[in-house]
Amino acid sequence: MANQAQLPFLPAGTLPAWLDHPEPRGFRPKRKCRTIWISDVHLGTRGCNADLLIDFLRAHECDTLYLVGDIVDGWRLKKGWYWPDAHSEVVRRVLKRAHRGTRVVLIAGNHDEMLRPYAGLSFGGVEIALEAVHITADKRRLLVTHGDAFDVVVLYHRWLAFLGDQAYGLLLRMNVVLNAVRRRFNLPYWSLSSYLKKRVKNAVAYVGEFEEAVARAARDRHVDGVVCGHIHCAEIRQIGDVTYYNDGDWVESCTALVEDFDGTIAIVDWLEEDRAQRRAAFRPAAPAQQIIEEKETA
């Protein structure tokens, strides 16, 4: 069992009072599932869709929550501090789940690599690890890893030059401005960076090579499948005898992987669900006479 370490921002032996406060009752019934995987949240950046992630966490309960790397963006925070209240709320909700019995495992990624020296410890009930093996309800063994190590294997430098860290940051800042305008017209979130990445030939080639490399590593580890993040592309794909799962991100696509109690794993596209809820909320009600006529013909 992992050693329990004291949260560094609290006096020894104390826990924040809000851990025991009840959550406000929501209007939407919670979906209960066995396991959830999320990654690439990039807390500390303007591109992070923290509000959508809070909404997702509010709508789901699970026995095990895997945070598959790049949850906090240490690279960006070194360049300048950005931490709005919504980012603190994400951390609060994760810690509260751990406090109330959900197993929470954080796999350190490349943007939160400052956590890697603490692998094997537990902070506030959150286990820190470099990778993990998850056993599904139908007894399959899945390697859980962030995936950044496979960038060494996949050598598509032209794509990395086009969508490198600086260019990608610029696209995300453009996303913020674009979606501020869209909100004024009551339009849902739309990712410019995701749109461009799916249409750039080198980026598409990079994704395919990355998936093949991860699957080969899983095959060498003698597991049935692999769950990763890193490339911000949610996917479920059979590659030979290995099932490749990628949970996407909460910057561009706002997706997660969810395991039901029979072992079925599916991608949850929270952006699409948010759009559907908005369409339903603004759908005009049928006239009273039409409702009466429908009842009479039923």
Question: What's this, in brief?
Answer:
The protein is α/β, with parallel strands linked by helices and 298 residues long. It has 9 helices and 13 strands.
Largest sheet: 8 strands, mixed
CATH topology of the domain at 30-146 and 224-297: Purple Acid Phosphatase, chain A, domain 2
Q: What is the H-and-E element order?
A: EEHEHHEEEEEHHHHEEEEEHH
Average of per-residue pLDDT values: 81
Q: Give me the CATH architecture of the domain at 30-146 and 224-297, please.
A: 4-Layer Sandwich
Which strand-content bin applies to the residues? Answer: 15-25%
**Total helix count?**
9
What global shape is seen? globular
CATH homologous superfamily heading of the domain at 30-146 and 224-297: Metallo-dependent phosphatases
Secondary-structure-derived class: alpha/beta
Kindly provide the name of the CATH class of the domain at 30-146 and 224-297.
Alpha Beta
Count of DSSP strands: 13
**Uncertain parts:** 153-163
Rg from alpha-carbon coordinates:
21 Å
Order of the strands making up the biggest sheet: 1-5-6-4-3-2-12-13
Give the terminus-to-terminus CA distance: 61 Å
Approximately how much helix is present in the residues?
A: 25-40%
